[in-house]
Amino acid sequence: MKKSAFFLVITILLSYTGLRAQVTLNCESGNRAIEQGNCWGFGAVSYSNTANLVIGGSWSTKSNSLTNLSPTACWIKTPWMLIGNGNITFQARLDGAGNGVTAKGIVLTYIPYNASASYGEGTAVQFYTYNFPAFNVTTVRDISAPIPAAILNSTSVYKIMVSFIGTGGNERAYADNFSFPGTYWSNPANGCIPMVVIQDADGDGIADSEDAYPNDATRAHDVFFPSQNQKGTLSFEDLWPSRGDYDFNDVVINYGLQKVTNAAGNVVELFGKFVLRATGASYHNGFGFQLDGISPTKVTSMSGNSLSAAPIYTFAANGLESGQAFATCIVFDDFYHAMTWPGSGSGINTDKAAPFVPYVTLDVHIIFINNGTPPAGGTVSSEQLNLSQVNFFIVANKDRGKEIHMADHQPTSLVNSALFGTQDDDSNPALGKYYKTANNLPWGLNVLQGNDYPIEKTPINEAYLHFIDWAGSAGVSFPDWFEDKTGYRNAEKIY
Amino acid sequence: MKKRNQLILMILVVSAAAITGCKKDIDNPTPSNESSLTKLKASSTFSWSTGTPVTVSIQGLPTVVQIKSTLSISLKDGSVLYSALHEMNRDITFSLVIPSTENVLVLKYGSESYDVPVVNNNAYFSFIPVVDNN
User: Fold this and answer.
1) Topology of domain A7-190, CATH
2) Are the Cβ atoms of A38 and B44 closer than 8 angstroms?
3) A113 vs A158: CA distance, rounded Å
4) ipTM exceeds 0.90, yes or no
5) What is the C-alpha to C-alpha distance for residues A446 and A366, in angstroms, rounded to an integer?
6) Composition of chain B by helix, strand, coil, percent to 5
7) Contacts (Cβ under 8 Å, ≥6 apart) of A158
């Protein structure tokens, strides 16, 4: 697969050579910023649409008053170009009465590329001068200057600078319809330095410097959620549809997701790292996630989960749960199988008096495109798999239909929908309301920055003193309620 | 033999007591200050997550030639939240969820890097530079 490919450069060459024999500027964008974005330079020169002074179309360039003979006072610079053969042509006029004017003119210089110089601009070389023959008329002058022999058809790149100069009076110069023989050779995505040969070892069209997998043509980019360096924390109450005690420690898991895409923007694989931290429950809860909107047939395989000897689930050949409309991954089917009760205390890691049980990490790996080959169901675009929308849930006490999701996240196909609207649950599928009470309280929390959890039977608001401020304000007040700041938490009630 | 049976019986009794002890007292939830949480009426649109949804809008630059490069959006710590090949002349809008404690995203394109502030759940960036038109 390794090959020394110059795909990007070839593309650029095909785009430029022959097709861009002239670099032009007619100002008709009406927005000089667009040209600057395309690596043109302007010094004391703007765009004007003053009707009686515009030269061609609706817009022309307009210099400041020409009161300086220096070519660096009022100027226009082209992008970097491979200079061709022929004449530089444009039109120009003065705008004033000519009172007190002693000289007005135009100077052309070329600027060689020097990587070590500021903006890469080497020493400018002046090669052409034009003097306006009269200062009290606004006659349009046609300017034509041959490319100097020194840079004619050179393999090096140059900029051409058009300078407007003068002394006396306050006339300005208008100019338009610039045409420079040559090929555009600047890269707006790279600080406007000249185009260079881009290394692309795997030939996937992504430059090595931007490719997370420069030697693997089947992979190109990584995306993380909630972040690369910090895992989020999911915590659940497990008595749904009854509201429970709100200690949010019945299942506590840290999680981190990594999506790998190829150069075409399709998902190659998904890594899920799940760190089992605590269960403050007697229930034997399971945990999984659904990829909303993604057919199970678009997944090649799934591995890395933890299953007990007699799981209540059935699985398809690709490792996903059977009978689901959307791809559903069971990460573990029984917390007490994946992690061992320490022999005393309530649950695991929720009772400070009981021995601490080391966390267990499960690395789940879902392959969508296997060595460049998608499954029968086809590919999944990166946009279709939004990591922030991965739909986590627990299954309470091995009762498959009793699945509990984060607030307003839809259930899987296998939920017992008869439970909606019973006891404390106020779900209303028709309204898209799921897993919330009548007061909109949830059964799950998702703290993207990660957080500690309350000890057993301690409502979370007793452990985190600004939790209610946060929740009551819909997240506006105390967005950092979970942090270890003075006055933010009661350490004795946090495990 | 008798001593061995007594030992087994003792182990079973202790184990049963321990297992019973790990069960949560479901029928008697702790009252204490829990009432202040249960009486809370939250917004119907609240997500109960410490993530902030952000709409990222990027305005393209009409380029002279086709420019393609990797566009990435990261947190300040370098965590990449979005990364894809992008044509510089294309407008694009997409949604992200970022930690609510973050208020700046870092946009990278080619060799360029820009800090993009998040204001009212929106992050806007234009490849067209801002210039003083004087």
Assistant:
1) Jelly Rolls (2.60.120)
2) no
3) 6
4) no
5) 22
6) 20, 40, 45
7) A80, A81, A83, A110, A111, A112, A113, A151
Closest CA relative to residue B66, chosen from B48, B87, B47? B87
Q: Nearest 5°: phi and psi at A36?
A: -60, -40
Taking CB atoms and an 8 Å cut-off, how many pairs form between chains A and B? 236
Which residues on chain A are in Cβ contact (under 8 Å) with B98? 448
**Cis preceding linkage at A148, omega within 30:** no
- Residue whose structure tokens are 């105390």: A478
Put simply, whether A475 touches B (Cβ < 8 Å) is yes
Residues A448, A228: contact at Cβ < 8 Å?
Answer: no
> Which residues of chain B make contact with A229, given a CB cutoff of 8 A?
77-79
In which region does residue B124 sit, left (phi positive, over 0), alpha (psi from -120 to 50) or beta (all else)? beta
**How distant is the Cα of A188 from the closest Cα of chain B, in angstroms?**
8
Residue A140 confidence (pLDDT)? 97
Structural tokens at position B100: 């609510």
Helix (H, G, I), strand (E, B) or coil at A41: strand
Q: What is the largest CA-CA distance in chain B?
A: 103
Write the CA distances from A246 to A139, B35, B49, integer angstroms.
Answer: 83, 10, 15
The CATH number of whichever domain residue B94 belongs to comes to 2.60.40
* Least confident piece of the model among A35-44, A67-76, B18-27, B119-128: B18-27
> Which structural domain, as residue segments, surrounds residue B122?
51-126
Q: What is the domain partition of chain A in residue ranges?
A: 7-190, 221-458
> Residue A464's pLDDT is what?
97
Look at the alpha carbons of A243, A247, A249, A255 in this order and tell me if their dihedral is positive or negative. positive
Q: Please state, in angstroms and as integers, the Cα–Cα distance from residue A48 to each residue in A51, A71, A172, A174, following that order.
A: 9, 21, 11, 8
How many domains are there within chain B?
1
**Contact indicator for A76, A183 with CB cutoff of 8 Å:** no
For the stretch A316-359, pLDDT in tens is 999 999 999 999 999 999 999 999 999 998 899 999 999 999 99
Q: What is the rounded (10 degree) CA torsion for B57, B108, A386, A218?
A: 140
Rg of chain A (C-alpha set): 34
To test the contact with chain B by mutation, choose from A441, A451, A484 the residue with the greatest count of B C-beta atoms within 10 A, namely A441
Residue A98 · residue A88 · CB < 8 Å: no
Residue B29 lies in a domain: no
Q: Residue B66 and residue B38: Cα distance in Å, rounded?
A: 58
